[in-house]
């Protein structure tokens, strides 16, 4: 079951207002709330508003992010702090508040963190063409990767919907 309503948090409330207008007439409702996710007070106020006006939190989707391109040797500490504040601290505060509210209200909810490859690099390559890969899979894997398919935003959204459809005790890593 998907949410009947969504609270959207962003610094640029005008973008959320435009989205809410675009979605009007569709199932559900978007409530835009101006929030700077680099400021704990803003996050706490947004959660307070949500709980007071809409009830317990059931789903949190962290999708805010900020990045700059450049070399580590040219890095600016102030910029790194800004990125870290949003991408790590803001996410952690929102997650903490959602978990606290879910526990207080006995809600078996969902928390989804959406990030980019810029946010992490790990060694989890999936299927790899090695001697342990059965010949049938090896042939298909090579053919698939040769197509050059690139993931699209809709694929991420489908993954989020799937994750939300699983039982509360199931951990999904997409």
UniProtKB/TrEMBL annotation:
Residues annotated as coiled-coil are none
Q: Could you tell me which InterPro entries the record lists for this protein? A: NAD(P)-bd_dom_sf, SDR_fam
Q: Which keywords are on file for this protein?
A: Oxidoreductase
Provide any one GO MF term from the record: oxidoreductase activity
Query: Which top-rank group of organisms is this from?
Result: Eukaryota
List, alphabetically, the PANTHER family matched.
DEHYDROGENASE/REDUCTASE SDR FAMILY MEMBER 11, DEHYDROGENASE_REDUCTASE SDR FAMILY MEMBER 11
Family affiliation: Belongs to the short-chain dehydrogenases/reductases (SDR) family.
- What name does the UniProt record give this protein? Farnesol dehydrogenase-like
The organism that produces this protein has a lineage beginning with: Eukaryota, Metazoa, Ecdysozoa, Arthropoda, Hexapoda
């Amino acid at each position: 079951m998907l949410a009947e309503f969504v609270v959207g948090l962003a610094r640029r409330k005008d973008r959320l207002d435009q989205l809410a207008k675009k979605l009007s007439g569709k199932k559900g409702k978007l409530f835009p709330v101006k929030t700077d996710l680099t400021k704990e007070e803003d996050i706490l106020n947004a959660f307070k508003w949500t709980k007071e006006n809409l009830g317990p939190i059931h789903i949190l989707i962290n999708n805010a992010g900020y990045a700059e391109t450049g070399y580590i040797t040219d890095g600016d500490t102030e910029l790194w702090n800004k990125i870290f504040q949003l991408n790590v601290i803001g996410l952690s505060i929102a997650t903490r508040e959602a978990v606290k509210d879910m526990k207080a209200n006995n809600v078996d909810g969902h928390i989804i963190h959406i990030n980019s490859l810029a946010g992490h690099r790990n060694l989890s390559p999936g299927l790899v063409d090695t001697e342990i890969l059965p010949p049938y899979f090896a042939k298909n894997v090579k053919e698939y990767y040769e197509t050059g398919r690139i993931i699209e935003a809709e694929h991420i959204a489908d993954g989020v919907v799937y994750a939300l459809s699983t039982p509360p005790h199931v951990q999904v890593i997409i």
